[in-house]
Amino acid sequence: MQSLPDPASHRLCAAIPGSYSRYRSARGRLVSGTELASDIGLLAFLAWLLAFGTHDLSHALQRSRAALTAARKRLRAINQQLGDRDAQRLSLQETFDHARFHDAFTGLPNRRYFMDQLDRALRDVRTKRRQR
Q1: Helix 111-131 to helix 33-101 angle, to the nearest 10 degrees?
Q2: CA terminus-to-terminus distance, the chain
Q3: What is the pTM of this model?
Q4: pLDDT tens string 80-126
Q5: What phi and psi, each to the nearest 5 degrees, are found at residue 102?
Q6: In the chain, where does DSSP find H-type helix?
Q7: 6: burial class by Cβ within 10 Å (0-12, 13-18, 19+)?
Q8: What is each CA distance from 8 to 1, 13, 107, in whole angstroms?
Q9: Which helix H or strand E contains 32, and what residues bound it?
Q10: By three-state DSSP, how is residue 101 classified?
Q11: Cβ contact 113:101 at 8 Å
Protein backbone atom coordinates (compact mmCIF):
# COMPACT_ATOMS: atom_id res chain seq x y z
CA MET A 1 0.00 0.00 0.00
CA GLN A 2 1.42 3.37 -1.00
CA SER A 3 1.04 6.42 1.20
CA LEU A 4 0.03 9.77 -0.19
CA PRO A 5 2.70 12.40 -0.58
CA ASP A 6 2.85 15.09 2.09
CA PRO A 7 1.74 18.69 1.35
CA ALA A 8 5.35 19.99 1.18
CA SER A 9 6.10 17.64 -1.68
CA HIS A 10 2.99 18.91 -3.50
CA ARG A 11 4.34 22.47 -3.25
CA LEU A 12 7.77 21.28 -4.45
CA CYS A 13 6.24 19.38 -7.34
CA ALA A 14 3.97 22.27 -8.22
CA ALA A 15 7.00 24.56 -8.52
CA ILE A 16 8.65 22.19 -10.99
CA PRO A 17 6.66 21.98 -14.22
CA GLY A 18 5.97 18.46 -15.41
CA SER A 19 7.12 16.87 -12.14
CA TYR A 20 5.46 14.04 -10.31
CA SER A 21 4.59 13.80 -6.65
CA ARG A 22 6.84 10.76 -6.35
CA TYR A 23 10.19 9.94 -7.96
CA ARG A 24 11.99 6.70 -8.56
CA SER A 25 15.35 6.34 -6.85
CA ALA A 26 18.33 4.60 -8.37
CA ARG A 27 17.22 1.38 -6.70
CA GLY A 28 13.78 1.63 -8.20
CA ARG A 29 11.84 2.42 -5.03
CA LEU A 30 9.48 5.37 -4.87
CA VAL A 31 10.84 8.49 -3.21
CA SER A 32 8.70 11.39 -2.04
CA GLY A 33 9.45 15.01 -2.84
CA THR A 34 10.43 15.67 0.77
CA GLU A 35 12.98 12.87 0.71
CA LEU A 36 14.29 14.21 -2.57
CA ALA A 37 14.60 17.71 -1.13
CA SER A 38 16.42 16.41 1.94
CA ASP A 39 18.75 14.36 -0.30
CA ILE A 40 19.47 17.46 -2.39
CA GLY A 41 20.14 19.45 0.79
CA LEU A 42 22.49 16.75 2.04
CA LEU A 43 24.31 16.69 -1.30
CA ALA A 44 24.61 20.50 -1.25
CA PHE A 45 26.06 20.33 2.28
CA LEU A 46 28.53 17.65 1.24
CA ALA A 47 29.56 19.71 -1.80
CA TRP A 48 30.10 22.74 0.44
CA LEU A 49 32.10 20.60 2.89
CA LEU A 50 34.27 19.29 0.05
CA ALA A 51 34.85 22.81 -1.29
CA PHE A 52 35.72 24.13 2.18
CA GLY A 53 38.10 21.21 2.80
CA THR A 54 39.79 21.76 -0.54
CA HIS A 55 40.13 25.48 0.19
CA ASP A 56 41.57 24.78 3.63
CA LEU A 57 44.04 22.23 2.22
CA SER A 58 45.21 24.65 -0.46
CA HIS A 59 45.91 27.32 2.17
CA ALA A 60 47.73 24.79 4.34
CA LEU A 61 49.83 23.85 1.29
CA GLN A 62 50.67 27.51 0.66
CA ARG A 63 51.71 27.96 4.31
CA SER A 64 53.85 24.82 4.11
CA ARG A 65 55.52 26.03 0.93
CA ALA A 66 56.25 29.42 2.54
CA ALA A 67 57.75 27.69 5.59
CA LEU A 68 59.83 25.44 3.33
CA THR A 69 61.11 28.46 1.39
CA ALA A 70 62.09 30.21 4.62
CA ALA A 71 63.84 27.07 5.89
CA ARG A 72 65.76 26.73 2.62
CA LYS A 73 66.83 30.37 2.85
CA ARG A 74 68.10 29.84 6.42
CA LEU A 75 69.87 26.66 5.31
CA ARG A 76 71.64 28.52 2.49
CA ALA A 77 72.75 31.26 4.91
CA ILE A 78 74.08 28.70 7.40
CA ASN A 79 75.79 26.80 4.59
CA GLN A 80 77.46 30.02 3.44
CA GLN A 81 78.67 30.71 7.00
CA LEU A 82 80.00 27.17 7.25
CA GLY A 83 81.87 27.55 3.96
CA ASP A 84 83.36 30.84 5.13
CA ARG A 85 84.49 29.29 8.40
CA ASP A 86 86.00 26.32 6.58
CA ALA A 87 87.94 28.64 4.27
CA GLN A 88 89.12 30.63 7.30
CA ARG A 89 90.23 27.40 9.04
CA LEU A 90 92.17 26.28 5.94
CA SER A 91 93.85 29.68 5.73
CA LEU A 92 94.87 29.48 9.40
CA GLN A 93 96.15 25.92 8.86
CA GLU A 94 98.31 27.07 5.94
CA THR A 95 99.59 30.00 7.99
CA PHE A 96 100.42 27.66 10.86
CA ASP A 97 102.22 25.20 8.55
CA HIS A 98 104.23 28.01 6.99
CA ALA A 99 105.17 29.40 10.40
CA ARG A 100 106.17 25.93 11.58
CA PHE A 101 108.56 25.26 8.69
CA HIS A 102 109.87 28.78 7.91
CA ASP A 103 111.92 31.40 9.70
CA ALA A 104 109.80 34.27 11.05
CA PHE A 105 112.27 37.01 10.04
CA THR A 106 113.61 35.82 6.69
CA GLY A 107 110.77 33.58 5.50
CA LEU A 108 113.30 30.94 4.47
CA PRO A 109 112.79 27.24 5.26
CA ASN A 110 114.15 26.30 8.68
CA ARG A 111 115.84 23.20 10.11
CA ARG A 112 112.49 21.52 10.86
CA TYR A 113 111.49 21.84 7.20
CA PHE A 114 114.83 20.40 6.12
CA MET A 115 114.50 17.45 8.53
CA ASP A 116 110.92 16.81 7.42
CA GLN A 117 111.91 16.79 3.75
CA LEU A 118 114.89 14.54 4.52
CA ASP A 119 112.66 12.05 6.38
CA ARG A 120 110.22 11.94 3.47
CA ALA A 121 113.00 11.35 0.95
CA LEU A 122 114.54 8.55 3.04
CA ARG A 123 111.12 6.89 3.47
CA ASP A 124 110.55 7.01 -0.29
CA VAL A 125 113.96 5.40 -0.95
CA ARG A 126 113.26 2.64 1.60
CA THR A 127 109.84 1.82 0.12
CA LYS A 128 111.29 1.72 -3.41
CA ARG A 129 114.03 -0.72 -2.29
CA ARG A 130 111.44 -3.00 -0.63
CA GLN A 131 109.29 -3.04 -3.76
CA ARG A 132 112.20 -4.40 -5.89
Answers
A1: 100
A2: 112
A3: 0.48
A4: 999 999 999 999 999 998 999 898 888 899 999 999 999 999 999 99
A5: -130, 155
A6: 7-15, 33-101, 111-131
A7: middle
A8: 21, 9, 106
A9: strand 30-32
A10: helix
A11: yes
